[in-house]
Write a structure and sequence with these properties.
about 0% strand; binds iron/sulfur cluster; globular; mainly alpha; about 90 residues
Length: about 90
């Protein structure tokens, strides 16, 4: 995943992320083209769901996580709040 310095139990799944083969900057794009590029890498990743939930749970604002951009994650969180859905984790 983006940050290989924090591989404790909560982030052990990061070792299986496709992004380990790419520079971290690829997941912090500055435009839509970069977001699409990162999303494509996430699309074939084995830990997409875990990654997305990690980012949502930790309220990570920046970067593409689990195939979702910052804006998409904000939308997901808003929707979950609106539905009063209790987090599944
Ligand atoms: S879903 Fe994307 S950001 Fe998350 S671990 Fe996989 S490749 Fe990395």
């Amino acid at each position: 995943m983006h940050d290989h310095t924090s591989e404790d139990a909560a982030t052990i799944w990061m070792a299986d992320g496709n992004c380990r083969n790419y520079p971290p900057a690829a997941f912090f794009p500055s435009d839509g083209v970069g977001v699409d590029r990162a999303r494509k890498i996430c699309a074939t990743c084995a830990v997409t769901a875990t990654c997305l939930e990690y980012a949502l749970h930790n309220r990570i604002e920046h970067g593409v996580w689990g195939g979702c951009s910052e804006r998409e994650r904000r939308r997901i969180l808003k929707r979950r709040r609106g539905l009063s859905v209790v987090s599944a984790d």
